[in-house]
Structure formats: structure tokens, C-alpha cells
Amino acid sequence: MTSTLGYAILAILARHPRSGYELSTAMSRPLGYFWTARHSQIHPELQRLVAARQVSFEQVPGPGPQDKKIYSLTDEGLAALRQWVVEPPQIRPERDEMVLKTYAAWLADPAELIRLFRDQLEAHERRLSSYEEQRASMPEAPAHGSPAFGNYATLWCGISYENHRIAWCRWMIGQLGTDRDLLEKNDQLSASLYPSWDAVKPSES
Amino acid sequence: MTSTLGYAILAILARHPRSGYELSTAMSRPLGYFWTARHSQIHPELQRLVAARQVSFEQVPGPGPQDKKIYSLTDEGLAALRQWVVEPPQIRPERDEMVLKTYAAWLADPAELIRLFRDQLEAHERRLSSYEEQRASMPEAPAHGSPAFGNYATLWCGISYENHRIAWCRWMIGQLGTDRDLLEKNDQLSASLYPSWDAVKPSES
DNA sequence: CTCAACTATGTCTAATCTGACATAGTTGAG
DNA sequence: CTCAACTATGTCAGATTAGACATAGTTGAG
């Protein structure tokens, strides 16, 4: 019944109570690296969670114009979150635009592709350093029952992911950088569409 | 103007013409590993692409009840696809449910978590073997201008990704398997919510 | 012969999510 | 003082997507 976004909110509130505004800033960085939501999604979801008695709130006069609503988990919310954590995840279909571009990369100019992958490589290297910095200011092996374990384990995943992505970008740049195909390039790009498609088995995907 | 789904369709049609039905089967396996769509999404999108003159179709009496519509790229569609390939990808926010569960993993029973991560590990190992099989029946280094290069490069990415994921699952299982915290477990799980939250700096996310 | 699986195209509702719109007080830089 | 940035909560229109509904002929197993 509760959506995954709902559980994301519960997971943050389990650390400590927050306002909707604080939740939306938390969902951009660093938690936003694996789950994002705008405030326009968070506010209605909080109302739903309150209706479902999984969170409650307390009105506090904040520094801003309006009263802050500080949300916290109810016992019911905590129980639901605990149950959800160990359930197998929904199979969300992967939709990776870079891989899709790669699937069609044979149609493009290698020099332009190299530029694209160099930019990607830089972005992933930047994110990796940011992760490494975070790891440096973190205890080595937090106890499983402490929130720090959640931070530590997600960070480990992020570092592993960025390393994978960096390796792949470097491999692509290497592949595209060989001279052999740069020479063939012009022929290939000017070749007509479907040169002999009815001679090709459709099973080749 | 054209959506990413539109480019996914163009990318498949660039290999060779297909019907909407064939597109939807292609979008489940193996292309579905990085881009999925149901036929209920594909048919309307094809109508849009026809209206935009990026694809055209030819009616063919198929084996089924209705005429097959065989779609193929127009020159305009091919040009649009080529341009899109080298453009920087949209920043799609990551939404990884397993990592979200990991973020909240400190709340759960380590034994149940191990079960969860073992299942994930097995799933990723299965997918990796399927990728390795595909690689075995594939030329070593296809020319950049041939569709086989697209297959080869996406497969390389998939193998790298599964290796990262497998490494992370194994690391998690190792972390959770230590006895030290199994002993602490009962204390932690029965600890009350927010034991001293107002003593904690809210900056700790 | 019957039934299930496959081929083939389409529509519709509901959920999720983005980006814009709307309002409004505080704080600090120049 | 003024203006931008920040804090703070909310709504709404539109795009994307999943899952169900709808129809209907062919093919092969038992």
C-alpha cells in the first residue's frame, strides 16, 4: 500500500524527525544519489503517511513565515519500515540512457563519442572523489544496529558503482580511439540505410 | 521533442525494420536489460514517430489476424538518431530500491538481510552467466561502424555492472555475517525510537 | 477437437514524477 | 535599502509508465 517513496521518507525519518523541507533537501544530497524526490512529491506523500498513521507531526514556529511541521515515525511506521527492508525489491526495469546511446553508437562519429564518454568519465571521477572524501570522515566498520552502518554500506555501493562506470568509460574511449576504424568511418557513415536488410536474419537483435 | 522511448525505438529500427510486436519483444530481452517498454507504450509512440516523419511503415499480411505494420527509419529519423547519440544524456535521478533498503538496513534483522542479499547475489550471478554466454558467441572486436559494435559495447557494460553488483552483495553478506553484532542485535532492535534525538545534530544525515 | 500459447494491434485507468505556479517571512551581501 | 538566497508549505497540469481490458486469427500439443 505504501509506495517506495513512502518507505524512502520513513527511512530518513528513522534517523531523526524532520520537516518536509528538510526531507526534500536530504533527498537531493547525499541520499539523492540513490533516491530523489521533489518537495511537490514529498508534501502529499507525508499527508498520506499521516493518514496511514505511519508518521505523526508536531507544529513548531520555524524561522520562516509558516509553522514548521516536524514529522516523526510512529511505532506503526517503524514496524512497516522494518518489514519492508527485508522484502525482495520490486523489479524496476533498468532505463539507462547512456547504455541506450551505446547500443546505437555504431551510427555516430567516433570523435564525438569520445568527447561524450570523456565527459561522462569526468563526472564519474568527480563523484567518486566526493564519495572517497565522505568515506575518509567515517568510522571504519560501524555496528549493524547503528544508522552509520546504513551510510557506510550505501557509500560502499556507490564507490563500487562509480569504479565500474569509470572502467567502462575508459574501455569505451580505448575502443573508439583506435585508428583502424577512423579510416573506415567515412564509408560507414555514408552507407545507405538497410544496405541488404532482407539478407539479414531478423533474429539478430 | 522526441522522447527517450522514441530514440530507443529508432535505435532498434536502425538495425532493421520491425513490427510493433517485434519491437515489444525486442524490448524485453536482451535489450530490456537496459531499456524496457510495453506494447501499450510502443504503439502510441510509433504513431507519434510516424507523425513526426521519423519512421514510415508498410502494411504486410502477417500470420496473425491483422495486417502487420513493418516500421522502418526514414532519413530524417536516422539523422535525428545520429544527432541524439552524441548529445549528453538527460540527468535521470537514480532510484535504486536495494540501496534504499541498505540505507535502512541498520533497522533489520541481520539474518533476514543475509537471505535478501544472497537472493540478489544469485540473481546477479545468473545474469552474469547469461551475459558471458552471449559474449562467447560474439566476435572479439567488431568494427565501430557495424551494429555488432553496439551489442559488444553494451554487453561489456552489463558484465562490468553485474561484477560490481556481485562484489557488493558479497561484501554485504560478509559484513552481516560477523558474530559481533549478532550479539548486539537484540538490544538494538528493542531500543526505543529516537533514544536521545534532541542531543543529536540534525546535520548528520 | 480443444485448449493454450503465440502473433498482432490497439485503448484506458491509475500511479508516479517533473516543472511550474503560488505565497511569504528571514537573513545577509553590497 | 534593495535584492537575492534561503526557509517553508502547498497545488496543479502534463508526461511517462504499468497493468488491465479488448479483439481475433494461427499453430501445435495432447
Topology:
The structure is a homodimer of 205-residue chains.
Chain A: H1 4-13, E1 18-19, H2 20-26, H3 39-51, E2 55-61, E3 67-73, H4 75-85, H5 97-103, H6 110-136, H7 147-177, H8 179-190
Antiparallel strand pairs in A: 1-3, 2-3
The structure holds a DNA duplex (30 and 30 nucleotides).
Question: How would you describe this structure to a colleague?
Answer:
2 copies of one chain form a homodimer. By secondary structure, chain A is mainly α. Chain A folds into 2 domains: 4-85, Winged helix-like DNA-binding domain superfamily/Winged helix DNA-binding domain (Arc Repressor Mutant, subunit A); 97-191, no CATH class. Chain A contains 8 helices and 3 strands, in the order H-E-H-H-E-E-H-H-H-H-H. Chain A has helices spanning 4-13, 20-26, 39-51, 75-85, 97-103, 110-136, 147-177, 179-190, and strands spanning 18-19, 55-61, 67-73. A 3-stranded antiparallel β-sheet of chain A has the order 1-3-2. In chain A, strand 2 and strand 3 form a beta hairpin. In chain A, helix 2 (20-26) crosses helix 3 (39-51) and helix 6 packs antiparallel against helix 7. The first copy, chain A, starts with a helix and ends in a 15-residue tail after the last helix. In chain A, 35% of the residues are buried. The model of chain A is unreliable at 196-205 (pLDDT under 50). The interface between A and B is large, with 97 and 96 residues. The structure holds a DNA duplex (30 and 30 nucleotides). Chains A, B: This is DNA-binding transcriptional regulator, PadR family. Chains A, B: GO terms for molecular function: DNA binding. Chains A, B: Residues 95-176 form the Transcription regulator PadR C-terminal domain. Chains A, B: InterPro entries: Tscrpt_reg_PadR_C, Tscrpt_reg_PadR_N, WH-like_DNA-bd_sf, WH_DNA-bd_sf. Chains A, B: Pfam families: PadR, Vir_act_alpha_C.
